[in-house]
TrEMBL record:
SUPFAM superfamilies: Nudix. It is an enzyme of class 3 (hydrolase). Its EC number is 3.6.1.55. It comes from Pedobacter cryoconitis. Keywords: DNA damage, DNA repair, DNA replication, Hydrolase, Magnesium, Metal-binding, Mutator protein. InterPro entries: MutT-like (IPR047127), Nudix_hydrolase (IPR020476), NUDIX_hydrolase-like_dom_sf (IPR015797), NUDIX_hydrolase_CS (IPR020084), NUDIX_hydrolase_dom (IPR000086). It comes from the Bacteria. Belongs to the Nudix hydrolase family. This is 8-oxo-dGTP diphosphatase. The keyword tRNA processing does not apply. The keyword Cell wall biogenesis/degradation does not apply. GO terms for biological process: DNA repair; DNA replication.
Length: 130
């Protein structure tokens, strides 16, 4: 099983950052919450902060751990570890993704999501509706 952390970066007005996978990535042009593999010896939180710095060029603060999502891709099983975060510094510069956008929770279902992210999207929407 591969642990992958992802960030639901929430803006002050309640929108969340989503990123579109590039054509060179697995699952090209699907949408996801940005993040990446947790390296050996790294916590999920430390890995997420590193990945967001590398992929987006920004610094985040982790606010809350969310329910994990386990997805079997056939060749490997991914455990997606989502965290609600806020942007604390920097401007987004895409190094791996094709695009990004800020969306309100109610708008998230209109996107073509990577399969592992779908339960995370639903959990986030459910939580925001409370």
């Amino acid at each position: 099983m591969i642990d992958v952390s992802c960030a639901l970066i929430i803006s002050q007005n309640g929108q969340v950052l989503v990123a579109q996978r590039s054509l060179s990535m697995h699952l090209p042009l699907n949408w996801e919450f940005p993040g990446g593999k947790v390296e050996p010896g790294e916590t999920a939180e430390d890995g997420l902060i590193r990945e967001i710095r590398e992929e987006l060029g920004v610094e985040i603060q982790i606010l809350k751990k969310m329910l994990p999502s386990v997805y079997d891709q056939g060749k490997q099983v991914i455990r997606l570890l989502p965290f609600q975060c806020k942007l604390i510094s920097g401007e987004i510069k895409l190094t791996e993704h094709a695009a990004f956008q800020w969306l309100f929770p109610a708008e998230l279902k209109k996107l073509d999501w990577a399969e592992a992210d779908i339960p995370v999207v639903q959990n986030f929407i459910d939580e925001m509706m409370l």
